[in-house]
Amino acid sequence: MKFKVPHTLVLLFGMMVFALVLTYILPQGSFEVLENEHGRSEVVPDSYEQYPEKSLLSVWSLFTVLPRAFADSQGIIFFIFIIGGALSVIKSTGAIDAFLGKMLEKFGSKPQILIVVCMLVFSIGSSTLGMAEEYLTFISVLIALSIGIKMDTVSAVAIMVVGYGVGYGVAAINPFTVMIAQEVAELPPTSGLWYRLILFIPFFLIGWHHVQKYALNVIKNPSSSLMYNSENNRSSVAKSYPNLKKVHWMIMTLTLFALGLIVYGISKWHWYLTELSAVFFGLAVAVIFVGRMNPNEAAKAFAIGASELTMTALLIGFARSIALLLEDGQVLHTIVNALSIPLQKTGPELASVGMYLIQSLLNFFIPSGSGQAYVTMPLMSPIADLTGVSRQIAVLAYQFGDGFTNMLVPTNAVLMGIIGIAGIPYDRWFKFIIPLMLKFWIVGSFALIVAVWIGYN
Fold first, then answer.
1. Residue 132's closest CA among 58, 76, 69?
2. Strand-strand pairing, 33-35 and 29-30
3. Could you tell me the pLDDT band of residue 286, with boundaries at 50, 70 and 90?
4. How many other C-beta atoms are found inside a 10 Å radius of the C-beta of residue 154?
5. pTM, 2 dp
6. What whole-number distance in Å separates Cα of residue 282 and Cα of residue 92?
7. Could you say which DSSP state residue 412 is in?
8. Alpha helices in 149-290 (DSSP H)
9. pLDDT digits (tens, 9 = 90+) for 301-341
10. Residues 6+ apart with CB under 8 A from 325
11. Domain spans of the chain, in order of start
12. How crowded is residue 439: how many other Cβ atoms within 10 Å of its Cβ?
């Protein structure tokens, strides 16, 4: 009997059960947490203490955690619903199809250009502005473009995910990761930029080569696609497209203006999901007027677009539940403490690689980049001092562990949202991404060892 990989929701629920079991097995404890002068919580090194008495979560918590997780993730969930509705309204005007027709004429014989340009844009956006959730806007269009030039949905998702993964992993000035980690480690903001800029080149080239090799193989041999014979395979697109009219240009100009406003709002006004959702809802309303749409038909299109992302919203809620169970069971700090102890017994080179490994493992439990920085950097900073590793290297190890592993861990809401929109089962994405992760782990470890040798500080 052939084994069939369970549905993604089944896999995530299994991880929830495993997390609950860990709360029964592992000792409970915590570090002392203090609020710094900026009002942020920081873990005090060497302050971990086990609780004398163990309070166990009930099995009932396995079920109550899910609605709490949805509430905790409401920002990104509602953001996804509004994006789906807005894109559906835009698509119903014919503007997207007309634009795709023009793009396919331009890139129809140049898939390499599409891959490298889009990956570079996503990488730079993540490296500088810390963009990730914002890319959910583009995945439907990128899928259509990719399929139109005979690639598949895995290729489209890879262009986006590997692009932003590299951007986060060797981020230049990402305000949500590198700058927070440097602040916690008491390093000057954006310090050590030169080495990260150098590292961007080899990591980007490795990611680009992996994506392009797969995509070109799919073009030459469709049966090599990881989505071949899958019920979710989107192997065809429209063979003809409407002409690009003046109203379509106006709608696409509005869309580009909205995207530009988002980028400006993130960088200048510190916008996040609430404001971004408002921009897309405003965009939908503006498109209705410019496109002279019937309001009732537009409302139906909006509802249909939002409903198509219900599975995506479910995946995000289930993924968040795993971390909440570990927090509720008071074993999250136990895991952090156990992973950090061995680093104090190795030399600086192995210690730096060990930090990378630990940060990669912790990203499964703490997929939030800023959250991981606040929890781990107060621990990694003094460990770096004890092992002869500079704090700058500790920050770099954190960046590698958080950024690159975001492309792999199923607890990353953005990743699950993107592959959910694309209809890619997690096991098929895992087959694509794990060889690249191995390359990044090897090259990243070597980069950290070189950093120790050159005294990167």
1. 76
2. unpaired
3. very high
4. 27
5. 0.72
6. 16
7. -
8. 153-169, 178-184, 193-220, 246-268, 273-290
9. 999 989 988 887 887 788 778 878 988 999 888 887 787 77
10. 16, 19, 20, 23, 57, 61, 62, 65
11. 8-38+95-241+309-453
12. 15
